[in-house]
Amino acid sequence: MTDAELRQRALKVVPGGMYGHLNAALFAPGFPQFFERGQGCRQWDVDGREYIDFMCSWGPVVLGHHHPRVEEAAARQARLGDCLNGPGAIMVELAELLVDTVPSADWAMFSKNGTDATTQALMVARAATGRTKVLMAHGAYHGADPWCTPSPAGTTPNERADLVEFTYNSLESLEAAAATVEGDVAAIIVTPFKHDSFEDQELVEPEFARGARALADRLGAALVIDDVRAGFRIDLRGSWEPYGVRPDLTAWSKAMANGYPIAAVTGTDALRGAAQQLYSTGSFWFSAVAMAAAKATIETLRDTDGIAAMERAGTQLREGLYAQAKSYGFTINQTGPVTIPWLSFDGDADLSVAMYWTDACLRHGVYLHPWHNWFMSAAHTEEDVAKALEGTDQAFAETKAHFG
Length: 404
Ligand code: PMP
Prior knowledge:
Blueprint: H1 3-13, E1 35-39, E2 42-45, E3 50-53, H2 68-80, H3 89-101, E4 107-111, H4 114-129, E5 133-137, E6 163-166, H5 171-180, E7 185-190, H6 206-219, E8 222-226, E9 249-252, E10 263-267, H7 272-277, H8 288-304, H9 306-327, E11 332-335, E12 342-345, H10 352-363, E13 366-367, H11 382-403
Helix pairs in contact: 2-8, 3-8, 5-6, 9-11, 10-11
The structure holds 4'-deoxy-4'-aminopyridoxal-5'-phosphate (PMP).
């Protein structure tokens, strides 16, 4: 069954043929919708085309597909049972691992998706403070529930009425936002760096991170780091740990279990009682297989210094792309951490150059994204990146020929 045939069939039985962030209709024309398999840092679409993949399934696949240690742990647990009447011992082991790994974590709660975790973190903050308002950065993505989905379709204004927006990296704006709801701020929710789609990424200013911490303390509000996208790719201890800034609550998911479905909230002792009060649960939240995969993934990242491997591969990719772009006369911007990179073309406001180039990359076996950040994995070897750079070089040549 080809991609084109599957799209036709899907149109009849799936709204729009596909929805959400993996809807290939939103990328560039040549992007495949349906995939057949993955191995290491490669994926094959249903038409049999092979790609060196730099999206890593939009983050989850951090060690490469079919990582033996993760697969073995998952299979061992699957043989025992996955969805049982209660969690396995693995839940306690995983919570202990998180508490040992993350200095701001005294406890952990588990769920399935990043949205579960950000929503649950805000519930803890509200239960703890008895307040309603949440300060969040304008344009930030925290998930797809009615309170945070970027599209208003199907939501009511009430569902977002408790959000007050500030400008990322502007302490002045954060303080101004807080001042509008003085006395009623339950939480400040913030991503570890600015990674809004369609825009160059922006690393956090350390003074902003420290200022957000100080403001939360002054207000008696919770500082929530949404580490769903960046977690386990910047610092295993939490992405603001290098700045010495510790959150009260952290939302985790994506890279936590190398593709198995799991999310977590970790928090401090001060919020333990509030967390305990919540009725927050789900039929599949305590499935043991994903927990076993998570434990194996985090241990493997720790034992093999997986982040250092991603940094090496990401640096090689970034340097290679800069050199290629220069040789073809393109001015490009590469932003964000090297482990969560992105490239934009100067003056390409309508993204037509990025669309053309990423489409050309696909034809040369390299899967990148025109308007969303990419993800490195620890499975990207020096040879893989070198091979991918051969493809991107041809794509630059074709882009140059097309746009002149
Ligand atoms: N927060 C951030 C920062 C994210 O990047 C995402 C997912 N892209 C989410 C929350 C929501 O995660 P999920 O899609 O797993 O619900």
